[in-house]
What we know:
Helix content: 25-40%
Oligomer: single chain
Number of domains: 1
Largest sheet: 5 strands, antiparallel
Amino acid sequence: MELRIVVPDDASATVLADRLMLALGSEHVSLRDGRREVDVRIAGEPDSAIVRALDAVERWLDHARVGSVEMWLGERSYRLAMWAPTEIWR
């Protein structure tokens, strides 16, 4: 199974790839040449690996101040966005 994360620029891709390598191991993470995309090969226990990858992306989003990224897990597309508190309507 593969997880692909599309980021806004090349520098962001490098930083995110470094974070994912720490979380999952360098053998599972790669950068696509000429694209702003990080690829993650999910191996072993997929549920645990996906949670670790999402956690790394979420922390990177917060640190990089990127509003959201597009992610592909297999054939499905998702948008992961920074958490923002909502106003309570009275």
